[in-house]
Amino acid sequence: MNLGSIERLLNKYFQNNTLHDFDDEFVMDLDLVTDVIVDWNESLYQFSKGDVHYDDLSLIDKVYLGYFPKESIIMDINLVETQMTLLDFYQFLFDEKLIVKEKYAIILFYFQKNYHKFLRAMLNPQVWSNEKRKILEEQTEDREGFTEQLIQELGKNSFKMQSADQNNKVIPVDFKKQEKTKISVSKKGEKIYQIRVDLKGFKPPIWRRLLIPNGITYNDLHLIIQNSFSWENYHLYEFRTPDRVIGEPNEEMLDFMFEELADANQILIDKDFEKYHKIDYTYDFGDDWEHSIKIEKVLDKDEVQDLSAPICTKGKGDSPLEDSRGEDLYDEFDLDIVNDILADLDI
């Protein structure tokens, strides 16, 4: 979408904006809404080099977790309203048929999953540019202590917010922290799977051969693959077997899905690994890094010495950098470094 089309779209959005109708106790600052939406669209336009696609999750990510925390001048007391404004704007885009149903669901899930990461970045002065830091420090001199209260709130279960669905009904959105940094299940280790993971679409090929224990969840497998390919676990993912799709379910996202989504935090890999020869894994629905996982061997624990953590036994090809689709940017593959990182996953 070009600049002229964006300007017409925003005029229509502001004429029909309904954020002030959420409830009597919560009054949105319409100046804030205007600032957030204009800043958001200007940033999308800049990062897209003049051709905005509102369903481009990679583009959304660059602004939401990149530009906004670094440059956007938003007071800490306005961060919740900022999130609500973005949700409302994307509902408007969906209602205007500028985003299809499936993409809209993925975008809502993205905002929900990354909300706490967004808050922490917005509250972290080390992320801010020098200009932003100077402005916010001047504006917050008389309001010491509020940021600390908001950070304490982040330690609770969630912020309770509201957004509107496609029928303009107000529905609750529970922004629970979902980010995982370590493997959570204990080691079973009765069997060892030898798998080969290929990143599709590259010549020469990019692949990793791994030894992993049985009894781990699909989310654990996701984290193993992340570290094996130098991904940074910033985005959504899914696994596909011949009979199901496995990911991180979310009630709001499930309302828009045509397929049932099994919970990657609950489903173990063993049943599928013993039943199927190959499954698929997709990471980052913006860049769509598609991987093929081939189950090459099922080994007894006696056949592998001292498998205290997943091991990458071999690999070929440097990994594309995070958010680098369409650019010639790669992270050099180093087997020793990969295995050092895998050793810290605590399986």
Short summary:
The protein has two domains: 3-174, no CATH class; 191-345, Structural Genomics Hypothetical 15.5 Kd Protein In mrcA-pckA Intergenic Region, Chain A. It is built from twelve helices and twelve strands.
Write a structural description.
The protein has 347 residues and is an alpha+beta fold. The strands form three sheets. Strands 7-6-5-8-9-3-4-10 form an eight-stranded mixed β-sheet. Helix 4 packs antiparallel against helix 5. The N and C termini lie far apart (47 Å). The relative contact order is 0.12.
Itemize the secondary structure elements and their pairings:
Blueprint: H1 3-16, H2 30-47, H3 57-71, H4 79-95, H5 101-113, H6 115-122, H7 130-139, H8 146-154, E1 160-164, E2 170-174, E3 191-199, E4 206-213, H9 218-228, E5 237-241, E6 244-247, H10 251-254, E7 261-263, H11 270-275, E8 278-283, E9 289-300, E10 311-316, E11 319-320, E12 330-331, H12 335-342
Parallel strand pairs: 6-7
Antiparallel strand pairs: 1-2, 3-4, 3-9, 4-10, 5-6, 5-8, 8-9, 11-12
Key features of this structure:
single chain; 347 residues; alpha+beta; Structural Genomics Hypothetical 15.5 Kd Protein In mrcA-pckA Intergenic Region, Chain A; 2 domains; eight-stranded mixed sheet; two-stranded antiparallel sheet; 12 helices; 38% helix; elongated
Category from helices, strands and their pairing: alpha+beta
Strand order, largest beta sheet: 7-6-5-8-9-3-4-10
**Can you tell me the residue ranges where pLDDT is under 50 for at least 5 consecutive residues?**
20-26, 142-147, 153-187
Radius of gyration: 22 Å
The helix tally amounts to: 12
What order do the helices and strands follow? HHHHHHHHEEEEHEEHEHEEEEEH
Q: Kindly give the count of domains.
A: 2
Give the termini distance in whole angstroms: 47 Å
The oligomerization state is single chain
**Helical percent range?**
25-40%
Sheet of most strands: 8 strands, mixed
- What share of the residues does DSSP label as strand, in percent? 15-25%
Task: Quote the average pLDDT.
Answer: 80
Shape: elongated
Number of strands: 12
